[in-house]
């Protein structure tokens, strides 16, 4: 059955939104399966730039249905303002088009306050979260005291659950973090208001997608974050609190493995990371300025959600091979190749060195990465602007060599090469 899963292979911001937008043209539905509004997915159509945080990027295509699965955590305030913004941009969002799982969990003002308090308490060891309340909301889910969307359908139960939740949060804020308590009653009124607006969108997403797939419809599962931010498979503890990897799509939508067709890994032509944590191929100075950009272009490496400058570095094939393994990636989409134009030399990390050993894949997953030295293969760069390239033959020889080197090192075909942010800026390979 035709479920395609789109996953980020790095630390997020690989250009997943851009690739989802390409594939959504041929899909019937797009579904978000993990994370929350810590995500920021950019879709550029002509002079319109859409930045989506919770609603699947495929919504930009008028024919596509949109789903938000049980694996997602939802801040109702940001959901409603995103719906409004998208509607204002001329895109239809209504309960016959957007369906949100009853089993998705809510992010509240309490989770936001706890995220801030926990980050402050970590001091130098802070994770650099997006402060969107993600960790605390998933903590409540795992602790079996979370607020699922289904509660919004029953006001009495919802009010009782909210009161208990905010009181627990206040205990933590005051006793553990010496922070001010939240004013509970106005918050309850606020969240009951959100429930009225969100109730019509609540649905059995697992059942609806299963039905669509059984009817031969093509569904795209849109990953948020990236493999190296996965709670289990990422650079723990510098990770998010969900499962962005491909199996997370099945868990987070309520589907079985037999429905998967392709697993498409999105890889930036270099490496970026926002927030703290190891980054073996990180670069600084002039090279970093080139990769990051000044901030003048919409695609420069500054966070879509937080505006923070992203850390940048050379593409790390050791971590890419690892991502291919843990996701079961069947094909890759390479983005932002255009940004590499203008370098005399381009480096690719092909192995890690520690003592006398060389590693093709990190021996204990992406942990203790600081103990390895990246081994680089240095390739000749190219000067040409490549944004207008539409066929493989249009690319400079050295750019083709760069792509072939990645493919050979990973043994997975690169089927799409993105050479600019717009829909048309792509080379599709057979
Ligand atoms: P996501 O979180 O994985 O969806 O990625 P983001 O949207 O946060 O960041 C990717 C940025 O790069 C966005 O501004 C995209 O518009 C932009 N982008 C995507 N592909 C390309 C590309 O091939 N070239 C350029 N120049 N920009 C791109
Ligand atoms: P998209 O979907 C990049 C990072 C944060 C932080 C860590 C934990 O746009 O690729 P959290 O708020 O989730 O508890 O923060 O994860 N992070 C992202 N980095 N892109 C994202 O999403 C991210 N979502 C979370 O910067 O390091
Ligand atoms: Mg992003």
What distinguishing features does this structure have?
single chain, 430 residues, alpha/beta, Adenylosuccinate Synthetase, Chain A, domain 3, Adenylosuccinate Synthetase, subunit A, domain 2, 2 domains, four-stranded mixed β-sheet, 20 strands, 31% helix, 21% strand, globular, binds guanosine-5'-diphosphate, binds 6-O-phosphoryl inosine monophosphate, binds magnesium ion
Q: Would you mind describing this structure in some detail?
A:
This protein starts with a strand and ends with a strand. The longest helix has 22 residues, at 155-176. It is globular and about 65 Å long. It has helices spanning 16-24, 76-88, 109-122, 134-142, 155-176, 184-198, 205-214, 246-253, 285-292, 317-327, 397-410; strands at 3-8, 29-32, 41-45, 48-52, 65-68, 73-74, 98-101, 105-106, 202-203, 219-222, 260-268, 271-273, 311-313, 315-316, 331-335, 345-354, 357-359, 373-380, 414-418, 426-428. With 430 residues, it is α/β, with parallel strands linked by helices. It has two domains: 3-90 and 205-428, Alpha-Beta Complex (Adenylosuccinate Synthetase, Chain A, domain 3), CATH 3.90.170; 111-201, Adenylosuccinate Synthetase, subunit A, domain 2 (Orthogonal Bundle), CATH 1.10.300. It binds guanosine-5'-diphosphate (GDP), 6-O-phosphoryl inosine monophosphate (IMO) and magnesium ion. Residues 8, 11-13, 38-41, 127-130, 132, 134-135, 224-226, 229, 240-241, 274-275, 304 line the site of 6-O-phosphoryl inosine monophosphate (IMO).
């Amino acid at each position: 059955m035709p479920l395609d899963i789109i996953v980020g292979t790095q630390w997020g911001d690989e250009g997943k939104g851009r690739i989802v937008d390409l594939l959504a043209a041929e899909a019937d539905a797009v579904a978000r399966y993990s994370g929350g509004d810590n995500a920021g997915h950019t879709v550029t159509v002509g002079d319109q730039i859409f930045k989506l945080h919770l609603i699947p990027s495929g919504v930009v295509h008028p024919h596509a249905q949109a789903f938000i699965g049980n694996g997602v955590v939802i801040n109702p305030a940001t959901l409603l303002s995103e719906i409004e913004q998208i509607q204002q941009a001329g895109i239809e969002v209504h309960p016959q088009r957007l369906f949100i799982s009853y089993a998705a969990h809510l992010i509240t003002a309490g989770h936001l306050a706890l995220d801030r308090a926990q980050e402050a308490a970590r001091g130098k060891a802070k994770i650099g979260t997006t402060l969107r309340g993600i960790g605390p909301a998933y903590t409540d889910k795992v602790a079996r005291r979370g607020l699922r969307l289904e509660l919004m359908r029953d006001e009495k139960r919802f009010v009782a659950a909210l009161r208990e939740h905010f009181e627990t949060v206040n205990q933590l804020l005051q006793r553990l973090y010496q922070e001010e308590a939240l004013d509970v009653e106005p918050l309850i009124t606020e969240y009951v208001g959100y429930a009225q607006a969100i109730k019509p969108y609540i649905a059995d997403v697992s059942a609806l997608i299963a039905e669509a797939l059984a009817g031969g419809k093509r569904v795209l599962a849109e990953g948020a974050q990236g493999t190296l931010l996965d709670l289990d498979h990422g650079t723990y503890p510098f990770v998010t609190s969900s499962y962005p990897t491909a199996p997370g799509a099945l868990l987070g939508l309520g589907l079985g493995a037999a429905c998967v067709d392709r697993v498409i890994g999105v890889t930036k032509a270099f490496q970026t990371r926002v927030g703290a944590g190891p980054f073996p191929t990180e670069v600084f100075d002039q090279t970093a300025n080139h990769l990051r950009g000044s901030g003048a272009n919409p695609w420069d490496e500054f966070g879509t959600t937080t505006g923070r400058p992203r850390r940048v570095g050379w593409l790390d094939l050791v971590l890419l091979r690892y991502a291919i393994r843990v996701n079961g990636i069947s094909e890759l989409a390479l983005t932002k190749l255009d940004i590499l134009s203008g370098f005399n030399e381009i480096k690719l990390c092909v192995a890690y060195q520690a003592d006398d050993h060389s590693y093709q894949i990190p021996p204990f997953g992406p942990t203790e990465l600081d103990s390895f030295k990246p081994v680089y293969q240095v390739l000749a760069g190219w000067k040409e602007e490549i944004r207008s390239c539409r066929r493989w033959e249009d690319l400079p020889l050295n750019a083709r060599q760069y792509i072939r080197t990645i493919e050979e090192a990973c043994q997975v075909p690169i089927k799409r090469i993105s050479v600019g942010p717009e829909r048309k800026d792509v080379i599709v390979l057979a």
